[in-house]
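Dear all,

This email documents one entry for the complex benchmark we are building for the journal club exercise. For each entry we list the sequence lines for every component of the assembly. Then comes the predicted three-dimensional structure of the complex as a token string, followed by one or two observations. Please use this as the template for your own entries, and keep the labels exactly as they appear.
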Amino acid sequence: MRRTLTRIAFLAIVAASISPMPLFVPFYGRAALEPLFTRYEPPAWREYLPFLDGVREHTRGGETVAVLVPAPRWDPGYAYAYYRASYVLAGREVLPLMEPDGRVVPENLLRADLVAVWHAPPPRTHRTLVWSGHGGALLRR
Amino acid sequence: MAAALIAVLSVTVLGVPFVLALDRDAPPLRLLGLAYLYGTGAIYFALLALSVLHVRWSLVSVTIAALILALPFVRRPGGQARVPVLHVVDLFALLTPIAFAIYATMVALWEWDFWAIWGLKARVFLERGGVDWRFLESRWNVFAHPDYPLLVPFAYDFAALVNGGWSDRWLGVLFVGWAVAFLLVARELAGREVRPLAAALAGVVMSSVAISTFVGLAEGALIAYLGAGVLFVRRALLFDDDAAWRHGAILLGLAACTKNEGLAMIICVAIAILIIDARRVVRLWPAAAIALPWLVLRALHRLPTDLASGSLAAHVAAHASQAGAMFRLLAKNTYPPWLWVAMLAGLLVLPAAARARERFVLIAVFLQLLVYVAVYFATPHDVLWHIRTSWTRLTMQVAPPLAFAVMIELARHAEARSEQQ
């Protein structure tokens, strides 16, 4: 009896370890898995990544860039914009204009060489257009 | 893709001298698995050393640094490597890694924590040509967890150096490497204790549980280092195996260079050894030595830890009132759920002597889980959010060594019974 139980327990571990993810992935096309790969990308922000790529192309390493987007709250909203910008604009100093508690940080706007403005009105502090595209503009002080 | 594959092959070749220096008769599966684990560890130390010495990273400087690290360890193989006895069932252990390879490389890495933590740091450091301490110290980058160890970002950086620039398209290949490395090590260790069929089935289980679908986060690497480290220490304790002591301690040290949970595991393993055989705890010294450089640098640069912010007593008091909801959520998010049920059922079926034989793994894993739960009580974050976003990954980290130990004992018990009859 104990021997049978032992074998059942052993095989139960084998069976329980079989995970459909990722074992069955080859049976799905990329299109079927697209929602999984894009689950952190808000649909309304589709153009934000190409915009950031454009900002990267038009800035140099070491420059300070603030991010201005139409997100009234940190999470969800501004956190995504800021983290994404930090990744794409690596090498530049990316500054947020909002604290995680939702407080606005105007001093970062004054510190920034450039402001990446996306679907938001441009600030008075940065007037010189460096580049625009994908719903946004890169402005220099 | 070629660059990522070359990076994987390069670190594997780099790791071979380290494995042979520690274990001249390392059998082929162990040699190959450990070579990748030690190779990525060597790259971590090469990049860290260059950063500390203010030498800009380039493929040439990193290669020279890695060779300087590896050359003193070059030895001839002992020639007495034990050839593993494989079983046709071993072929099934390849299915999940193959599927995982397709999954992990289908698109550029997509996880939030990849581009907010692990990939972000790697990309920033690559631009800088070394660790960007200013970035880590900036109050605006606390979200990137500056205190986290850097083995995984440095592996990304090495792949980027091989590639000639940053690309996150094929970095998933590194995670296939870590998963396969752990599988090879676990399969070889299983083959030493049970018959080929049972060892092959253990390999099938390890091939599945060693995979983290959170591709791009450090989990995949941690599972490999932590799991292999615990399994080698287990072997060392059970068989008084010198090579296993060396591997176990070094792998646990590398686990601490991967994630803070690795550091916690060194402490849990040390306590487990103290309980079982206190004299032998000193053999873990390489783990502490390997973990130390980052801890020192982290302290020197005063890199903040989010968990240490605010009043600990206030956090515990606040979360204690939510204990019921917390434990319900822990139970709901334990992963993989049926595997945990099966492992616990297996433990119940085993005779007391078999459980006693595995007390090291049981104590170490139990203590590690206890640490995780204690951290939840101390977290400054919304505790239910914290559990929802991490417990699945944490339970994945410790499942492989526990599953291995339970399976080996069940197989040994079944084999012993059939021999008696």
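Observations: Chain A touches chain B through 44 residues (CB under 8 Å). The beta strands of chain A are 64-68, 93-95, 114-118, 128-133, 136-140.
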